[in-house]
Amino acid sequence: MTAVLDGIGVAVPDRVVTNDDFAARLDTTDDWIRTRTGIGERRIADPAVATSDLAFAAAQDALKHAGSESPSAVLVATTTPDHPMPGVAPLVAARLGWDAVPAFDVQAACAGFIYGLAAAAGLIATGVSERVLVIGADVMSRITNQDDRATAVLFGDGAGAVTLRAGEAEEPGAIGPFDLGSDGTQVGHLMVEAGGTRVPGPSPEEPARFLSMNGRDVYRHAVRRMTDSSSRLLERAGLEVDDVDRFVAHQANLRILMAVADRLGIPEERRVSNVDRFGNTSAASIPLALADAALRPGERILLTAFGSGFTWGSTLMTWPDLGFVDNDHRR
Ligand code: ACO
User: Fold this and answer.
1) Which of 19, 213, 219, 260 has most ligand 1 atoms within 8 Å of CB, for mutation?
2) 314, β-bridge pairs
3) Which of 48, 78, 138, 311 has the highest Cβ tally under 10 A?
4) Do 283 and 263 fall within a single domain?
5) Using an 8 Å Cβ cutoff, are 310 and 182 in contact?
6) Measured between alpha carbons, how far is 222 from 228 in angstroms, rounded to an integer?
7) Could you give the residue ranges of the DSSP H alpha helices within 129-188?
């Protein structure tokens, strides 16, 4: 069986932080941030809000628009779980009232949502689950030093969820094939060093608990890996770039996604971007972009993502008729 998408939902915090808000307290400008990244504003969660709160809200939104049956598994792609243990997925499943379904997290940073889709497709293909809820959720502001202009301006908080059911590869909504990869030798370019078993328990003030990044190296690897992964995937699927109606790349920043699309030869009007309003929301960025893109039933979509690890992944899908064309009905 193939995984078929039949519902989508999103949740973002109400609080909008603009580039000018950063410029008011850090040595940066709206122009620098827009020119380098395409980001204009992002949503930032209040201190009381944890990743499972956003994940739960996105799940409720997705379930409202999906078929009536309850999913039989919950996967949450996240780098920012509520706690080191347990994962976010069991917490979300419990809040949804499902106390005995398989529920686990996928940690593949900004590529996590694609990895989550692949894991869900595996659960469906092997008959373990008939319906899977896949959520990408991150509160990146919690692991980003809000006083570091080089990283704070890039990230936002949010969650997106999709419901998948078992179906046929030819159906609208069908997802696959996949191309996934990683290169752990590059770990030092983008990481949170402390808080795990290698460097446990930093105090809240220690820099090692925050995300550190070599921006230029990340940029270079992100463009190369997403381009190569997308090309490999199209070849595996027996498709040409012209067969792709819409291109949804991880919304890390506009320059990265334009560079990948340029290299692949995808025309501008087929590129989807909402990074100007949400920044880089890590595992949430692909579903947030899908929900915003006003996709039409039958359009073939190429999804690709890249993140810390490094990890990367790409997949293809055709957009199903969900009864609405964009996200406005939710606002
Ligand atoms: N405002 C003003 N100046 C800044 C800011 C800022 N917000 N941030 C950095 N600078 C300064 C730097 O300190 C540096 O100053 P210096 O020359 O005096 O040392 C100068 O700007 C140039 O810095 P660079 O890092 O060379 O700037 P670059 O043109 O490479 O742009 C950027 C930086 C936007 C981070 C770029 O490297 C990039 O997009 N990298 C990818 C990073 C990314 O997307 N990370 C997200 C996580 S990974 C993922 O999701 C794929």
Assistant:
1) 219
2) 179, 304
3) 138
4) yes
5) yes
6) 10
7) 149-152
